[in-house]
């Protein structure tokens, strides 16, 4: 009877755990972002707590407010601007469906070698009018729906960012207690190796954060050099925008592609070609080399594990997978190593 009671209690506990995870499922991504941000900036939190005489709540509030001013507001502004541009593009697609193509831009004719041919091709497309629109109308509708979906994703990303900054306050304030709770759970699961696995997770996340921020800083510096060489006004501001965009996958082209287009519009074709080559092979290319190196540096994980974790995590989980992927593979790799080392040799006859 006692065993039946214990089994019933275990079933109820599992059901309660499943119900709790179900309730928290919509906020898992924001919770992970808050935990990663709090962990990456924890030395700053400890320093601020010492300066304020041990008042953890005040230190957490000040540091969270600083993150809102430094990170959230610029990203929210950028997100709303991107959403406006997507909305303008959607309206343009609808106008093309109704009124046809606008007149060819003047700068199109000035392009060497191919300008006149492209302008005549543009005019022929406009003259064909109804037949062309009838053939491409279904595709234009799909493009419009795709743009609207991207706008909705930007809005959900802004909301997720806001929630993560709310959660980071509680991670700051209750960090030591949460760490002790996680350590007790790991002791129950893994015994003496609990601190090793906790340090493994902490070190992996720290290296990933350093790799992401270090790569973003390198891309921003290279972009600034390219903007200065091309003579683009506001190069420092564009460099800061490149740094923020480098924190998201495929973000840097959103900074240097418009600059390349502006150079073409101004008629500076030589610098436009330079900016396109510099952006493709230097600014965007450094991400594939520097980020895996910084993540693997200082750890005993093979580089192939880090690469698989970074790219596989991005494919499986999105941008948050950049942190989850290497961490999961690092823990799995260490568990397999421990298991293989602790296997007793089979006695021979």
Automatic annotation (TrEMBL):
<keyword id="KW-1003">Cell membrane</keyword>
<keyword id="KW-1133">Transmembrane helix</keyword>
<keyword id="KW-0472">Membrane</keyword>
<keyword id="KW-0812">Transmembrane</keyword>
<feature type="transmembrane region" description="Helical">
    <location>
        <begin position="221"/>
        <end position="249"/>
    </location>
</feature>
<comment type="similarity">
    <text>Belongs to the autoinducer-2 exporter (AI-2E) (TC 2.A.86) family.</text>
</comment>
<dbReference type="Pfam" id="PF01594">
    <property type="entry name" value="AI-2E_transport"/>
</dbReference>
<keyword id="KW-0813">Transport</keyword>
<dbReference type="InterPro" id="IPR002549">
    <property type="entry name" value="AI-2E-like"/>
</dbReference>
<protein>
    <submittedName>
        <fullName>AI-2E family transporter</fullName>
    </submittedName>
</protein>
<feature type="transmembrane region" description="Helical">
    <location>
        <begin position="154"/>
        <end position="172"/>
    </location>
</feature>
<feature type="transmembrane region" description="Helical">
    <location>
        <begin position="269"/>
        <end position="290"/>
    </location>
</feature>
<feature type="transmembrane region" description="Helical">
    <location>
        <begin position="302"/>
        <end position="335"/>
    </location>
</feature>
<feature type="transmembrane region" description="Helical">
    <location>
        <begin position="60"/>
        <end position="80"/>
    </location>
</feature>
